[in-house]
């Protein structure tokens, strides 16, 4: 029976005594048993006839052990009784001697037996750690660090680095490996990969990966979102304003399209209210901006909201100012209503809403929208009279490029007759009453021989009182059928007749107020009509017995003593 | 599977007690068992070869590892759980008898009876419930900081390395950290104000690190507090005072509020409301202390804040705010902002002074559908005349009477303009006043203007042109009558809203005009003393009234006066 030691299939000790083989095992722990390193020690003697013979044998042994990472075997009676693959020959020591006849030696061989590995064979110093840091802003940063050092498990080209790489790569990524205990409320997170680093040291067969993740607290897989809000208010602010800023990171987990889809689905209004604690914000932002960085896979959204409730649930509203000019002497007040129809949203939507509001709300005469608003302010400020429904001016300006529609209208508190007549609008009406009171009549006669002497005869009679009424009116023909009608003249005549009727009405009022003396007589009457211009003027002369204040006899003549 | 080591011939057992710190707390003990044993290969009857021994060695090598679930039995004695740290086979020629050496570690719990007292409540149970005998290393630190900005913070750090053990070391580490973080030591000694600071309520932030291979773990609990804590929030405030060239002072306070009770953001919001409510007191104290840097009297700081801004960190439970106050007198305590300018404009050609007030009134608050600024407007403009008149009289007095023909006459309001935005928020107005005497009222008549045109009596004569001689004049020894035309115009005081449907009764107004006209008639002798006037009588008169309320009286008056034929002196 013989025992043979082979390395790489070769017995280095041919014709020499077989060395003693001792073995020691180092248990490798990484938290728990990972594997074992096997150290073999070959102790023996070489025997030779001479110095050269011994050197030759020594060369035979070192030559046979020159190759690394080969299989070490012990064979007995032709049967392999021990085998250790991928061995590393660490040292070959021949003891100090005269190098004659007998020389002792020891050889150190180290190897890893795959059967003794409960960890991953071919890998040493494995590292895998997770670090969770609560950023205090609703996000948690998570890092995943992996590293390993490989050792050879083949006898040909080194696969040590490949072993390390395979091991680390197999662990890369997030697969619910660990649930944090404190951060994220102890819930399983759904992190998104933000960045990665890879560290390679091929000469030491070391490979490492660092993965940086982040996630919003909770369990849903969403882009990393940070929200900031600022609120501005004050006694001089038209509205409380809320500025919302959202920064989204898709990392390596979300595509840019995915990030866009997520961003476009954000309820900006809800987010603004929830974060600002201002719960009466208008649902549509006053303005917003979105920016994206495709390379960094980030999207930022800024939106500004206010609590403008003037829309009152509608798509547009009329923001206007009523200004009043009061002549404090005559106490006549003119009201000027000027405003802009405000819409929100994109220009076509904004303009369409403004136009709709103009057509359906502001303009219809039946709604008296403009008048009622001017009159409301007039009443609130208490001018004391009644605002005429008659427009003194009216204009509409539209700018399709900024979606604005401006409307202005003016009224006065001089009320005319016939207000509200749907068929005729008196635009202007005025009258003058001229009263020539009844006067005592005197007839002067010069003295013919005394300078400065006149004989003033009192006729002891009074003239009749004369009253003249002058009326002028201008009007707009409200017979819409008159436009383009072949019977235009007929419609104009109808309007003139209508206006003349109002002149007669006014005349009746004036007569009722001032021509109420005795023995009334008409003295003159004239009428002038410009139908196409909508103008009509009339004058009337009357006389009556003394009625209005006049001068007594004593008042009418003074004699200077 | 248990490891059963037979034929152990030499055994050494050493026990090492492991302490936390430098022998403070004995949390575990390690029994290290070193033994040598024989490998009995006497069945190798031919005494040749080592196959039998190597086979036995292979079995032992394969069994070298961790025995957390299974027992380590040596020569029939069960030493419990542990692990094999090394194994060697040193006999060089193990043909019939081999030999092995093996080292085993057995982990036992230590004696933690002294882990008690003021600072250690709960620590022992935290350890004993977390397989502490499998802890390889444990460190725990508390760091408390009182910072330059008045804030303070602490970090509670735990690092622990576990052997895998029979249990889940990750869970053990979590449980241990959780238990230690739950202890409430009265730490924070550096300043008596912060004693027991560790137990302050509030938001804690954590970081955790797990080494899944080596079972090395670290945990950190951090907490920060702003400079003061009031109930359910902590806050920090700072103030600035700015005195500008207009002579106004603005005091601003910036604050940071952090909620200390869940939900943090809601308590932060309550804290902000509280802090803003009390901010005026702080700002006013600050104002009163430093307003003295500039000379002169100063306005008090208005208690109504002019601006409020907030930056909200919902997730962080923090809100920053800034609030401003001013002593600018435009802020009215009645709830509105009133600004105005006064303008004095003297026109020497008409001997008229126009004084105006241009102003704006803005009730506090936002635009709204229900905006009503009438009371603010009324309140703000109630003193308009007093302001204007004081301004006017001040100038008039300072300039001195009759200087530059600038005579003092009382002011009359001539016109008012108002811009009233439906939804708010600022109402603009202008009130114009005039010193013109034409604006004085007589009875119900306003803006009474009287103009008089007199024609003097002229001697009656005849001019005759005589050819080849000259033009001669023939005196008649008589004088033409003089005349006075009086025109009085006025605006009827508006009492009737509609002069069309209801033309007004003019009786009183015409009597007033008549009275004024007669007055002018009676003045003729006194106004023309150079004339000998005998008779004065009315030759014509008429009134007019327009739909705009304008009234006029025209009177024609004749008077008899004497002037000599050669008297060429001015008489009127």
Biggest chain contact: A-B, 141 and 149 residues
| Count of individual helical segments of chain B | 8
Would you tell me the overall average pLDDT of chain A?
88
The number of E-state strands of chain A comes to: 25
Any idea what the radius of gyration of chain B is?
56 Å
Explain what you see:
With about 550 residues, chain A is of the alpha+beta class. Chain A is built from 8 helices and 25 strands. In chain A, the strands form 6 sheets. In chain A, strands 1-4-5-6-3-2 form a 6-stranded antiparallel beta sheet. In chain A, a hairpin with a 1-residue loop joins β2 (about 20-30) and β3 (about 30-45). Chain A starts with a strand and ends with a strand. Chain B is of the alpha+beta class. Helices cover about 20% and strands about 45% of the residues of chain B. Chain B has helices at about 50-65, 125-130, 170-180, 265-290, 375-380, 385-400, 505-520, 525, and strands at about 5, 10-20, 25-40, 65, 70-75, 75-80, 80-90, 95-110, 135-145, 150-160, 205-210, 215-225, 230, 235-245, 250-260, 305-315, 320-325, 330, 335-345, 350-365, 410-420, 425-435, 445-455, 460-465, 470-480, 480-490, 530-545, 550-560. Chain B has a 5-stranded antiparallel beta sheet with strand order 2-3-8-7-4. The radius of gyration of chain B is 56 Å and the shape is rod-shaped. Chains A and B meet through β2, β3, β5, β7 and β11 of A and α1, β7, α3, β11 and β12 of B. β7 (about 125-135) of chain A pairs antiparallel with β11 (about 205-210) of chain B.
Give short descriptive properties of this protein.
heterodimer, A: 561 residues, alpha+beta, six-stranded antiparallel β-sheet, four-stranded antiparallel β-sheet, 8 helices, 25 strands, 19% helix, B: 572 residues, five-stranded antiparallel β-sheet, 28 strands, 18% helix
């Amino acid at each position: 029976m013989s025992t043979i030691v082979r390395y790489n299939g070769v017995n280095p000790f041919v014709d020499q005594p077989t060395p003693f083989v001792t073995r020691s095992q180092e248990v490798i722990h990484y938290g728990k048993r990972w594997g074992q390193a096997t150290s073999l020690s070959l102790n023996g003697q070489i025997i030779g006839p001479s110095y050269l013979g011994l050197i030759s044998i020594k060369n035979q042994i070192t030559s046979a052990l020159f190759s690394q990472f080969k299989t070490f075997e012990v064979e007995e009676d032709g049967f392999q009784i021990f085998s250790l693959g991928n061995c590393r020959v660490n040292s070959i020591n021949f003891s100090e001697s005269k190098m004659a006849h007998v020389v002792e030696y020891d050889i150190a061989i180290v190897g890893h037996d795959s059967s003794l590995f409960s960890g991953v064979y071919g890998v040493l110093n494995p590292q895998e750690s997770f670090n969770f840091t609560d950023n205090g802003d609703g996000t948690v940063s998570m890092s995943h660090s992996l590293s390993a050092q490989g050792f050879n498990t083949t006898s040909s080209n080194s696969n040590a680095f490949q072993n390390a790489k395979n091991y680390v790569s197999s662990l890369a990524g997030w697969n619910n490996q660990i649930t944090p205990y404190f951060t994220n409320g102890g819930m399983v997170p759904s992190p998104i990969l933000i960045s990665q680093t890879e560290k390679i040291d091929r000469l030491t067969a070391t490979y490492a990966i660092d993965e940086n993740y982040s996630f919003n607290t909770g369990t849903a897989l969403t882009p990393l979102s940070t929200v900031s809000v600022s609120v501005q208010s004050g006694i001089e602010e038209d509205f409380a304003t809320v500025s919302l800023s959202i920064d989204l990171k898709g990392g390596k987990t979300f595509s840019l399209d995915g990030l866009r889809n997520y961003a476009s689905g954000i309820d900006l209004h809800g987010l603004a209210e929830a974060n600002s604690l201002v719960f009466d914000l208008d649902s549509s932002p006053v303005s917003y901006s979105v920016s994206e960085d495709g390379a960094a896979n980030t999207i930022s959204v800024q939106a500004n909201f206010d609590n403008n409730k003037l829309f009152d649930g509608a798509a547009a509203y009329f923001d206007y100012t009523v200004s009043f000019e009061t002549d404090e002497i005559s106490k006549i007040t003119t009201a000027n209503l000027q405003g802009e129809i405000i819409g929100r949203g994109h220009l076509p939507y904004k303009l369409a809403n403004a136009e709709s509001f103009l057509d359906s709300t502001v303009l219809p005469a039946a709604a008296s929208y403009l008048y009622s608003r001017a009159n409301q302010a007039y009443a609130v400020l208490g001018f004391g009279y009644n605002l005429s429904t008659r427009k003194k001016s009216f204009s509409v300006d539209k700018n399709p490029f900024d979606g604005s529609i401006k409307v202005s209208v003016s009224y006065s508190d001089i009320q005319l007759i016939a207000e509200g007549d749907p068929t005729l609008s008196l635009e202007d009406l005025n009258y003058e009453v001229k009263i020539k009171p009844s006067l005592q009549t005197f007839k002067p006669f010069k003295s013919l021989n005394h300078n400065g002497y006149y004989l003033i005869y009192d006729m002891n009679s009074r003239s009749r009182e004369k009253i003249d009424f002058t009326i002028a009116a201008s009007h707009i023909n409200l017979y819409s059928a008159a436009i383009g009608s072949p019977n235009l003249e007929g419609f104009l005549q109808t309007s003139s007749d209508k206006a003349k009727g109002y002149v007669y009405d006014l005349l009746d009022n004036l007569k009722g107020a001032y021509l109420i003396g005795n023995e009334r007589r008409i003295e003159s009457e004239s009428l002038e009509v410009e139908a196409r211009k909508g103008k009509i003027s009339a004058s009337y002369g009357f006389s009556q017995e003394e009625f209005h204040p006049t001068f007594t006899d004593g008042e009418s003549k003074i004699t200077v003593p | 599977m248990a490891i059963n080591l037979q034929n152990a011939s030499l055994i050494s057992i050493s026990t090492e007690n492991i302490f936390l710190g430098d022998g403070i707390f004995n949390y575990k003990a390690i029994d290290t068992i070193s033994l040598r044993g024989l490998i009995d290969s006497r069945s190798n009857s031919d005494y040749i070869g080592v196959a039998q021994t190597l086979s036995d060695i292979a079995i032992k090598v394969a069994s070298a590892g961790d025995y957390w679930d299974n027992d380590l039995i040596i020569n029939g004695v069960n030493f419990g759980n542990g692990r094999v740290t090394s194994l060697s086979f040193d006999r060089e020629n193990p043909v019939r008898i081999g030999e092995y050496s093996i080292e085993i570690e057995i982990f036992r719990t230590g004696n933690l009876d002294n882990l008690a007292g003021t600072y250690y409540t709960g620590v022992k149970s935290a350890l004993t419930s977390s397989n502490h005998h499998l802890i390889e290393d444990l460190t725990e630190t508390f760091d408390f900081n009182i910072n330059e900005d008045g804030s303070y913070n602490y970090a509670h750090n735990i690092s622990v390395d576990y052997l895998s053990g029979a249990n889940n070391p990750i869970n053990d580490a979590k449980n241990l950290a959780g238990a230690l973080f739950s202890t409430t030591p009265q730490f924070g000694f550096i300043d008596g104000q912060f004693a027991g600071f560790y137990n302050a309520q509030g938001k804690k932030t954590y970081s955790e690190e797990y080494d899944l291979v080596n079972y090395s773990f670290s945990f950190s609990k951090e907490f920060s507090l702003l400079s003061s804590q009031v109930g359910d929030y902590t806050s920090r405030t700072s103030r600035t005072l700015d005195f500008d060239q207009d002579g106004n002072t603005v005091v601003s306070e910036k604050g940071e509020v952090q909620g200390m009770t869940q939900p943090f953001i809601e308590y932060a919001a309550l804290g902000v409301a509280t802090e803003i409510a009390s901010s005026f007191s702080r700002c006013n104290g600050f104002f009163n202390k430093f307003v003295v840097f500039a000379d002169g009297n100063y306005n008090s700081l208005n208690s109504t804040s002019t601006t409020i801004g907030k930056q909200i960190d919902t997730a962080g439970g923090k809100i920053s705010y800034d609030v401003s106050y001013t002593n600018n007198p435009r802020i009215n305590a009645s709830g509105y902002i009133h600004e105005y300018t006064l303008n004095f404009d003297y026109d020497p050609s008409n001997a008229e002074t126009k004084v105006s007030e241009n102003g704006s009134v803005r009730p506090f608050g936002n635009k709204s559908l229900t905006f009503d600024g009438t009371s603010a407007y009324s309140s703000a403009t109630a003193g308009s005349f007093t302001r204007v008149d004081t301004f006017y009289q001040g100038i008039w007095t300072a300039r001195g009477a009759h200087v530059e023909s600038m005579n003092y006459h009382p002011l009359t309001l001539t016109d008012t303009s108002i811009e009233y935005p439906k939804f708010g928020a600022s109402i603009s107005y202008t009130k114009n006043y005039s010193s013109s005497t034409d604006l004085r009222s007589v009875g119900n008549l306003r803006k009474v203007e009287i103009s008089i045109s007199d024609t003097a009596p002229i001697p009656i004569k005849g001019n005759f042109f005589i050819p080849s001689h000259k033009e001669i004049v023939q005196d008649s020894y008589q004088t033409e009558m003089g005349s006075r035309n009086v025109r009085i115009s006025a605006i009827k005081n508006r009492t009737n809203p509609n002069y069309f449907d209801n033309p007004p009764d003019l009786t009183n107004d015409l009597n007033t005009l008549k009275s004024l006209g007669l007055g002018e008639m009676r003045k003729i002798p006194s106004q023309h003393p150079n004339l000998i006037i005998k008779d004065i009588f009315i030759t014509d008169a008429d009134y007019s009234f327009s739909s705009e309320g304008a009234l006029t009286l025209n009177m024609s008056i004749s008077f008899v006066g004497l002037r000599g034929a050669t008297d060429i002196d001015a008489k009127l």
